[in-house]
Amino acid sequence: MLGLADSWVWDFWTSDDGRSYHLFFLYASKALHDPEARHYRASIGHAVSTDLVSWRRIEDTLVRSDAPAFDDLATGRVRSSSTPTARGSCSTPAPR
Question: Mind listing the pLDDT tens digit for each residue in 73-89?
Answer without folding.
Answer: 555 555 555 444 444 44
